[in-house]
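Here is a typical protein record:
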Amino acid sequence: MIEQQGRIERLEDTRAVVRIGPVTGCSACDAGRGCGAGIFTRLLRRKATSVVLNNSIGAVPGQAVTVGIPESVFLRLLLRFYLLPVCMGLAGAAFGHYLAGRISAEPALTDGISLVAAVLFTGLALWTGRNRQLALASQSGLRLQQILQTTEDNEVYTCLRNS
């Protein structure tokens, strides 16, 4: 189970709206000594996301919580939003190269056509992935894991696990 901290925004009957902030890389990546994921995090500046989850742990608005996501769901999301666009970009470049060859284009024009096709195919993969609704909360096991107890200045110091 992969965990992410969030904060309860509001309650809707038996469900809680949880705001999950942007994810940073590990401490090595953030310091510039790791694999480089921290660089992409800083470049992309992902916005906070709100998800609606069953409030099985009795959290109240304003409380810090931990949200868990199964590794299988994380892998599906990784394939959808990373591997698929990369493969589509490569397929677009190959298609653009093939198309340029069919019209006997000059080498510079061939490169341009390949680049445009790669960008279009990658954009298509990202657009279709973002426009499809992924019902994480109801279908995948995304759930509230625990309530984090905080001090008055919002420092987390203990956890109450959901058994």
Observations:
- Strands lie at 2-12, 15-20, 49-54, 64-69, 143-150, 156-161.
- Residues 71-140 form one domain.
- The chain has two domains: 1-69+141-163, 71-140.
